Amino acid sequence: MTPTLARRHGPRPATGRDPEVRSRARDWAEIQERMPVPLYEAVYERLEVGPGTRLLGLGCGSGLALLLAARRGADVTGVDSGAPELLALAGERLESAVDAEADEGGRSADAPRLVEGGPADAAPPGGSPYNLVTAFSPIGAVDGDFDALLGQLAEALPLVGRGGTVVLAGWGPPERCAATSVLRLATRLADPLRGNGSWRSARRDDLEEAAARAGLVPDGSGRVACPFGYADVRSAVRGLMSTGLFDAATRNSEREQVAKELAEALHPYVRRDGTVWMPHVFRYLIARTR
């Protein structure tokens, strides 16, 4: 079986910068996306994700979290909007995994499914509601991410059965997240006149507040160490710029200048062997639908 890709109807984004966009998508998939893997694994282990899990991944990107769940036997659907290059990489990644399992005589779950659009476009296959929704894109980085999460949940929750599980993720305390300095740099470069611009520190109760406003019932939480480690400064710059946090900065300045300032900001985290190591913590909240 191969992953299925459903696309919403409507105009596709302009393709004039496709080579650059594809390069950044590849940087995300090959460098940056692995940083939260300890978070994914901790959540899946705690929830005993496996056969019988019907998972909807919001903002699935290039699909690494989906892949890890599928390897545990879960039926997975990923949804993302405005990121066709990432979804293409997710399709390649999941297809390779499905083919490998087929060669070994395994894989009894349904083929992974990818949806280009919003959560409302990802109706559960076969009519059975999802019993797990993951929103692993962490909030607490920039203004607006909290409201964006609530918008996604408003579309996704009607697709979940009563008592279903929803996992929200957020940045940990600023003092335990070395990448906080990178966020400050990104917003300063995006709007020098406003200083920190749209950046704000993660608040202790961000996830609980989001769950309450979405009508969810909190049912546990945790923190997971997810250090950002890179082979060298060049890889770190490529990985961090693939996150989208520097998009506004590159609209206001040359990309090369932004990359130069980012490399300088990473100097405190460069080790003697040239690798870059940034301690980091993500937080997650488990909640239930009513």
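Next protein, fold it too.
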Amino acid sequence: MEQLKVGLGQRSYPIWIGDDILDNLGRALKEVDFPRKVAVVTNPTVGGLYAERVLEALAKEGFHAETVTVPDGEQFKNLETLETIYDGLIENGLDRFSGLVALGGGVVGDMAGFAAATYLRGIPFAQVPTTLLSQVDSSVGGKTAVNHPLGKNLIGAFYQPRHVHIDVATLTTLPHREFAAGMAEVVKYGIIRDRSFFDWLGSHRSELQRLDRTALIEAVKRSCQIKANVVEVDENESSLRAILNFGHTFGHAVETLAGYGQIKHGEAVAIGMVVAAVGASTLDLCTSGEVDSIRELLASFGLPVEPPSFSLEDYLNAMGRDKKVKEGVLRLVLNRGIGDCLLRDIAEPAGFFASVLNTLPMGR
């Protein structure tokens, strides 16, 4: 088992990464002095696979836990579903000395985290992510949110977990499409921060695709370490942390326009990264060969790399509501080669994205 730490002073917390470590969850939560009365928020799919085992692991260490189940899917990541979590917490008698455990993927983690941030003005929570995307991205860093019909993650809070418990064995029950979606975020870390990691992913893609546990632990560990290093410098995304949104500005527009759940988050981010890389090449920040390397690695994991055929106007309107718009100016994360990136204000997004999209084949 590997252990990392997100160093945020009094809000610091550990990340445990290992193979078949769900049974150690109770011990891990005891080490961070987690409340003994717990609600486990999950969905029917993940709950059917792992809830009983998690409840047993908690009971073994003296925790008293109940489950709160929410529907499965991005389309349910909204205020209506959030209210059902509050209902479950109230009905089970959780007070300010209780805790919440998020057992599931990014949707469960984001909603449960936001519920924890706002229930009784804040109770402790822990993340037990069961998808690759949530293990390497949404479970670390304290971003919690729900979607609004006009934009993704527009309603939320920064609220750090007490513990993140990553068992790569849960990835064996993950559909291939979900695993591929998670690989988009893994590849992202190599593009924006670590060329050697990008190259490692290329040389270990076969091991990752057959779910070799050693390779999975290494990929998750390196991804989480990169994210932790960034979050430690800029917890609330006032500067550096914005680089983690590489591919997300255009990607969120794809998700919004397609309808939440139709195109998975990681798939949309993969498309967004290709769009950003092509944009970077038009500004001489990277070469066409580096764009091809990015596109090829993403495609090799079964990810889409062509934007859906929405109109330029639709894309611009969706991106105009992005959280990274500052005083009406769209700020984009662009790669500088592979292994580095920068933030760039796009003064004329219509011209910029028209130029980019005109060079790309459009999907359906």
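About the second fold: The mean pLDDT is 95.
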